[in-house]
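Below is how a single chain appears once it has passed through the pipeline. First comes the sequence as given, then the structure the pipeline wrote out for it. We keep one example in the README because the format questions we get most often are answered faster by looking than by reading.
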Amino acid sequence: MRQASTRAAPETTPKRPGGTTSTPECDIESLRAALARSRVEQRRLALLAEAALRERDLIARSTIWRATYPLRVALDGIARLLRRWRPGIRDAAQEGHHAPATDTAQYARWIAACDTLSDEDKALIVAHLQQLRHRPLLSIVMPVQDAAEAQLSEAIGSVRNQLYPHWELCLVEEDTTPPALRSFLLSITATDPRIRCVGATGARSFAARVNSGVQAAHGEFVTLLQPHDLLSERALYEAAVALDAHPGVNLIFSDEDWFEDIAGSRQRRDPAFRPDWDPDLILGQDAAFAFVFWRRSLLGCLGGMREGFEGSEVQDLVLRSAAEIGGEGIHHLPAVLYHRRLGQPAPAVAAASRHRAIAEHVHHLPRGSGAAVLPHPRGIEGQRIRWPLPDPLPKVSIIIPTRDRAELLERATAGVLARTDYDALEVLIVDNGSTRPEALQLLTRLDADPRVRVLRSDAPFNYSALNNMAARQAQGEILLLLNNDIDVLDGGWLREMVSHALRPDVGTVGARLLYGNGTVQHAGVVLGMGSFEGGGGVAGHFALHEPAEALGYCALSVLTRTVSANTGACLAVRRELYDVVGGLDEANLPVAFNDVDFCLRLRERGYRNVWTPFAELLHLESASRGNEDTPEKRARATAEARYMRARWGEILDEDPYYNTNFSRLSHTVSLAIPARRLAPWRLASAE
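Resulting structure:
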């Protein structure tokens, strides 16, 4: 996706690990760091303001803007009348499938339409179970120390209501269990042979109690259920179906939500619809999976849950599991199968435990020995991983195609050459037929800089060909494709991108790009977004036009994560990988979607595309090339979209990093009604 293509957790104050007190020296360093951040932010805001003024002037001078003035006046008058006559009218984007996924009313509508089982559904599920080749025993471990009897009874009831019958429930009690609770447990076990009590004598930690339950379990797979939480009645069925379809899987996780009782009415809220396994996101996100099934033999190999990680035991165990089995052994169920009860306190040491678990995991990863695990700069309960850079730094070749528009190119090159904290670079400017005197003068001046080379091409505009030509002449180990309408906001952007590009499993690296008005232009690419010729679209931008200060759904807008593709407006990749896949496709995708295609070809070879919010730049999208506003351009864009649908159709229809319960008709993270995910029991009945 180059220029014109398409192409949350609440904020909290970070806790000091271990509750240590600060020293005067620490306070001084903190103040210095805060002052430095303030200066960077002032620079960023000043650049945003300048860009907004330039964008406004560009629009105001355009022929279309002037020609449509009477129409805009008329429409504005109609809007005022509507607001006067219909004071309750709401923007259509706030309703239907365009409402944010965090909207409680919209989530309730989604539950009614997509997450409520009818009698017919239940009958089909029972019938489907008979078709499974393998119906394993699934063990549920539930530590019950100091559990409230009413909540415990409801949690056990959610297990007994499972549509999948092949389960066992291990209730883990201690020698200090109150007599009344022990009596209640004995009465429960007497009613169902699948439920039994497990003693955990001397087990004083959550990890020790869980390990006692796992050791007593007989199931092929084991999961945890807190005594105050609930399982969806189809939770075990969904797990069994996944295990039947993917027999090599060793770990399964699902989506989840929260619930609370208000005035006698139960309300589900705050769904966490997750992407498929993402080894970067789990390092930054404070969100241990609630519903996880481990193969019991894997837990034995790992030695079970570790003590000393209070509050982060599950996240630590998931990380150690991933290190043992790799991402290919992990399967995601895009369904809300676990319900967490609001109001349960988290251990005070959770932040320190999480930091320790993540640091241990990162330091065993390739290039992770020198990585730093830092508190997230936005103050959320999460982390930033700063990956190390070698000494000396690898050379980066920055490729900038351009034509005329000297004011844009001058700003872009000044940001790269004067405001970027990275010396080992060269800039290759690919001039595609500039004719304006000011542009030619600027190119002459830039060509005199030893760090800059100006390449010439008078061929018809072909973004892919221009970049490929420059790549062949580049001397850097890292290639960075950059639009001529990009402006640098913070000097550390290139260090951040290169640190990811050097990781051996990473293909491309994308940056956080902001429009001149301070909203998000690029935070990763979502496949299949929009529509095309009556079917799914090709691709679109995640969180497009979201305010820059927003955290986004589940803080995804401010966390490093894996994406299916990145925009070519600012994209880093190792030179060897660029060459391996043959660069951008200049034959079929001269202008649009060449970046998406490039990223997918790397993904096809097993590389991940990573997006980082810690490289932030300004982007005045398509300012130099313009919009698809002629019949010829529209025909070319249609041909490119058709090529992408033909080449990647099935891949475009399911983006593993964008939950299938989300609508793809809006850039807002919103729920799809009706559901996009086909229920497995209905698929089975149709076969």
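Confidence is low (pLDDT under 50) at residues 1-33, 54-97.

See the next section for the split statistics.
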